[in-house]
Amino acid sequence: xxxxxxxxxxxxxxxxxxxxxxxxxxxxxxxxxxxxxxxxxxxxxxxxxxxxxxxxxxxxxxxxxxxxxxxxxxxxxxxxxxxxxxxxxxxxxxxxxxxxxxxxxxxxxxxxxxxxxxxxxxxxxxxxxxxxxxxxxxxxxxxxxxxxxxxxxxxxxxxxxxxxxxxxxxxxxxxxxxxxxxxxxxxxxxxxxxxxxxxxxxxxxxxxxxxxxxxxxxxxxxxxxxxxxxxxxxxxxxxxxxxxxxxxxxxxxxxxxxxxxxxxxxxxxxxxxxxxxxxxxxxxxxxxxxxxxxxxxxxxxxxxxxxxxxxxxxxxxxxxxxxxxxxxxxxxxxxxxxxxxxxxxxxxxxxxxxxxxxxxxxxxxxxxxxxxxxxxxxxxxxxxxxxxxxxxxxxxxxxxxxxxxxxxxxxxxxxxxxxxxxxxxxxxxxxxxxxxxx
Length: 438
Fold this sequence. Notes:
single chain, alpha+beta, Rossmann fold, Elongation Factor Tu (Ef-tu), domain 3, 3 domains, 8-stranded antiparallel β-sheet, 6-stranded mixed β-sheet, 8 helices
């Protein structure tokens, strides 16, 4: 068996909360105190201190990169930052707090393993806190950190911390989030961000960075259902290496499950079956691979396979349908009305599609479904019916976030107008098995 490392050393997380809860300052403090900034970044912060912070370094400037954000003191776009510690690598998405930028929060959180919801200790749990927790639940983010910020402004009161924790826990049963951690912090002063605070002797838990470094994410990927959307048919054109003359590999990223040499697989939508002959990566051949590795598969049989086809375990088939039921976040300034044609991008293929019906709008303040709506406005979340020009090979979003998600694209402008999460297939089409002579 060839040894290889599972990419669990990368944690994607996003920050969210209401305006002025301190999201950008928290990220800035995390980067600054973990010594993850370049010298020129530190110098730029110091040069701008007199302008933006009254002589004090403004850590929010590390993420509030847009001029409009700096002028208004708010985050309106999704800002991404990258850093690493000896224990793990991180990708941070700083997402906006305003209600009208819900679509940006959906975008930034769509690939996250963990979401940090900031709560102002003076304000407690407010509507935006609940809204962002609901979105995190809809997006199936496995881990949640509730960072109760500005604890210094309430005198580091243990009672206030417990009060807010109780408020939030009363709301949790309505969400499908199992792992929730509460941490008292002061992002401005750095308490419990990277180093433990002397002001919270009553808090026995880890710092924010300590939790991010140790939270268990190995089981976040679907390692049960093998799914491999084909991205590229690999036919090397190397006249000097005759060993590659007949090589035909299928390259892409494993979207779910584990694949082994000798495993029986099916190619969808054709329904042809074969077995895995070889598994290749840039580092050489493997005996097995798993999500989310990028690999090249070689099959025992020379089948007609192209980009957009999906290779799956022959005994574990996904859904296959052109009639789809999905939850979407509408992102366009023009409302969604049924009947208009769009392009639907799902895994490695793009197909023509139309929204045939709007079933409801989800009130993201209380999670209730509003029936009888005629359109979805920008930032609205709702359930819709979609008809595609050809069947999609998919899983429900709750089963696999990669094969269960899609975007809608407006053909004329090429603008992304919606992000969607597919509901589980009601019927699984099992294509006919084929026999091959070896």
